[in-house]
Amino acid sequence: MGNSNCNPVFENCVTQKFVQDENKSPYPNILNKHPMNLFDSKASISSKHLELYQQQQNELKNFLSKSLTQSTYQRIEFQNRFMKLPHQVINLILYFCIDNYVDLLTLNSLWHNRLNHSLNQAHNRIENLFIQQYQFLKLRQCKTRFNRFTINQNHKGFRLDRLLNAEVLAGYENSLIKIGYSYVNKKNKEQFVFYKFVIYKQDTKKSIWISIDQSSNIYDKRTYPIVQNTLAFCVGDQIKLSVNILNQTGLMDLKSFKWLPYQIEKLEVKIFQSPKHISMYPPSSLENKDIDWVLYEYFQNPMKKCFDQLKHLILKECRCNGVNIITSRMKYLCESPGLISFRNLNLSLTITQDNCINEIKRVSLIQDQPLQLQLKVGDELILYYTRSQLESVN
Fold first, then answer.
1. How big is the CA angle at 153 (ends 151 and 155), to the nearest 5 degrees?
2. pLDDT in tens, 223-239
């Protein structure tokens, strides 16, 4: 077929076909240059070019396929061998490279599941002994928590904890409960850790105090809220407590780990308020019998402060005291569910309509983990705020 005898309609159709298939064809430039010569005797020259081009493409594909297959095979082989290791060996490897713990979990779903399964198998002893020792706490959830923190500019730390969530059951209402565990440290000495909390009847209105000191007499300029030492829980609430497994001092000997028998102290029940233990009251530096608290409106000092415009909270009363160092005491009533944030104070609270979930800290510690406090609608919040110089807190 020659170009002189070619039907224009047919020629346009053939040319249009190659143009439409340009993105699909591996040789679009050659086809566009000679769309009709494929039917001519001169098309043999183009065929040789096409065959040579296709041969080079096939060689390149084979080379890439070979190299990719080899590297992929090595990775898959390593992954299969690693996943078949006993969980004790995987845990030892994980403890050695604990700094990359989060990165290892995010490699893929297989690594995430295998590492978590190994840690769960290693820490089963903690959960099993907890269930046997404390029947009034129903274990709901167990998971591993890894935290990084900065000690100073040159030193960074980490800790690996086993976090237990347990629901408070009925049976020990209006009581102070003391639980704890022990283990043998690297110096072959038995180490003890204790927790304290109070159990109320279901739907009892609780009261909790928080202290924030931003005065210039403190050495550490970073503000950390100090929460009530002993928290109260109603029947149905959930307690979170963390068991430290690994930190910079070393790895806990899980074989020597054991939960200690719990201790109960009955609280005196009062008519018009919930029973309290002495550890639930603020320290004498905040509440002293010799201190006179003056209403905010009548306290004549420019350093006084009152947070009175907060959502989900109703301000019941605000009183102040002091001369050079001013402390404001604000009493709030939790009105509706929601999130409350105090700017520049590193303090955020959650008010819920359902049962609360709070983490208890170890005895004698001011702060163990970052504050994530939950309150229930109807609970009372007492906030102590201290400062000693003029500053704007928004």
1. 50
2. 778 888 899 999 999 99
